[in-house]
């Protein structure tokens, strides 16, 4: 069955697909990992250091969690800019809807996982005054668009399988949990991603459809509790999604599937009728030592030359400030980036995922009473050809 599915998938990738092209320069921002706790600020850092962990080898050692202040500073930068239709840039924020319930797990000697929905607050030891209200306020103001990432970033099956084993992996995991940190991915890639279990054989790494169905159903429920909204766009943790994921998303009314960077793929409909968007600009000053605004602007120019939107990837770590100030540089660079875009492209449009979906379906998108028309054309392309085309 798996082999057959693989052959079918390869065959489909060889067939031409209709990609959407636009006659105006369009920019979207997509951002992952909101709501997911990491290092428990300075106290967590000190606790882990005294437990023998040397932190600081990579930026994700200093991944913490956004604060209400980080969010309001980001919102201020977004609100300080306008496109040719007078609209602000906004950011598609992909949320992890649960953290770990460390209090409950600790009472059981950290022998099993328990989840704590973000809608119910943060785990023991974490404080972020006004955080949930700040997310919601940005949504009301139209600068944040909440979307689905997952309920946990890691694969729960991989962790459940590991926990009964008394070895270095379990020891590191429990050391992190005691300090209020769920995981640090680069130190333990065996934990995988929500729908993807890396230690299975290659053909069965994606969780079966029924498991994904159950996970996504729960995640949508928690998301709705947090925002009183249903998600319309989704990005799988680690970008690990397959046809099963897309079908289940579609069943829940999710119309847009976000994909990672790597190829200049135009927006196109995939199986299940979901619009696939591929990120084409990597705006990641916190993690990319070669980052520059100029490089990002060159990537944007390449997209516009091909008539495809510039879809900017900017992970939440870039806005964190509590242990390491990633935020100041990011916001300064983001401000420069928007200024350069607005002066270089007089007919620029900032849109979000849902508006792009509306645009490919209707040739227009709306925002309150304002309606914007964009010329949309379809051109055939082959995914296999584009996968090799990683430029700019
Ligand atoms: Zn993520």
Q: Would you mind describing this structure in some detail?
A:
- Helix content is 36%, strand content 17%.
- It has 13 helices and 16 strands.
- A hairpin with a 5-residue loop joins strand 9 and strand 10.
- Helix 3 packs parallel to helix 11 and helix 10 runs parallel beside helix 11.
- The radius of gyration is 21 Å and the shape is globular.
- It binds zinc ion.
- Zinc ion binds next to strand 2.
Key words describing this protein structure:
392 residues, alpha/beta, six-stranded parallel sheet, four-stranded mixed sheet, disordered C terminus, binds zinc ion
What's the structural blueprint in terms of helices and strands?
Layout: H1 2-14, E1 17-22, E2 26-34, H2 41-50, H3 68-79, E3 91-96, E4 98-100, H4 102-107, E5 115-117, H5 131-140, E6 144-150, H6 156-162, H7 168-178, H8 209-227, E7 233-234, H9 243-251, E8 256-259, E9 268-269, E10 275-278, E11 281-282, H10 293-305, E12 310-313, H11 327-344, E13 349-350, H12 353-362, E14 364-367, E15 370-373, E16 376-381, H13 383-387
Parallel strand pairs: 2-3, 2-12, 2-13, 3-6, 7-8, 8-10, 11-12
Antiparallel strand pairs: 1-16, 4-5, 9-10, 14-15
Helix pairs in contact: 3-5, 3-11, 8-9, 10-11
Bound molecules: zinc ion (ZN).
């Amino acid at each position: 069955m798996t082999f057959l599915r693989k052959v079918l998938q390869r065959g489909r990738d060889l067939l031409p697909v209709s990609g959407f092209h636009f006659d105006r320069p369009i920019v979207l921002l997509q951002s992952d990992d909101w709501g997911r706790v990491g290092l428990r600020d300075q106290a967590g850092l000190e606790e882990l250091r005294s437990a023998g962990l040397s932190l600081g080898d990579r930026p994700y050692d200093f991944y913490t969690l956004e604060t209400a202040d980080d969010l309001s500073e980001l919102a201020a930068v977004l609100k300080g800019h306008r496109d040719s239709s007078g609209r602000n840039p906004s950011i598609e924020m992909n949320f992890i809807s649960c953290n770990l319930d460390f209090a409950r797990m600790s009472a059981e000697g950290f022998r099993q996982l328990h989840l704590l929905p973000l809608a119910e607050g943060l785990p023991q030891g974490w404080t972020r005054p006004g955080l949930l209200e700040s997310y919601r306020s940005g949504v009301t103001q139209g600068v944040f668009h909440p979307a689905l990432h997952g309920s946990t970033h890691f694969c729960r099956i991989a962790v459940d399988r590991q926990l009964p084993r008394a070895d270095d992996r379990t020891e590191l995991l429990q050391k992190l949990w005691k300090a209020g940190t769920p995981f640090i991915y680069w130190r333990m890639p065996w934990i995988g991603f929500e729908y993807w279990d890396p230690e299975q054989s290659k053909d069965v790494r994606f969780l079966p459809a029924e498991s994904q169905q159950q996970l996504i159903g729960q995640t949508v429920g928690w998301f709705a509790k947090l925002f009183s909204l249903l998600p319309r766009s989704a990005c799988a943790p680690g970008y690990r999604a397959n046809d099963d994921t897309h079908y289940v998303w579609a069943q829940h009314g999710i119309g847009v599937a976000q994909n990672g960077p790597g190829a200049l793929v135009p927006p196109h409909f995939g199986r299940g009728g979901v619009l696939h968007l591929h990120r084409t600009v990597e705006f990641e000053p916190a993690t990319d030592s070669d980052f520059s605004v100029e490089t990002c602007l060159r990537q944007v120019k390449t997209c516009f030359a091909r008539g495809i939107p510039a879809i900017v990837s900017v992970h939440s770590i870039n806005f964190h400030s509590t242990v390491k100030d990633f935020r100041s540089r990011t916001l300064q660079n983001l401000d420069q980036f928007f200024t350069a875009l607005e002066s270089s492209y007089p007919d620029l449009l900032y849109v979000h995922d849902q508006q792009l979906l509306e645009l490919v379906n209707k040739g227009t998108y709306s925002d309150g009473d304002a309606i914007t028309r964009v010329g949309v054309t379809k051109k055939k392309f082959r995914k296999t050809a584009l996968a090799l085309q990683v430029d700019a």
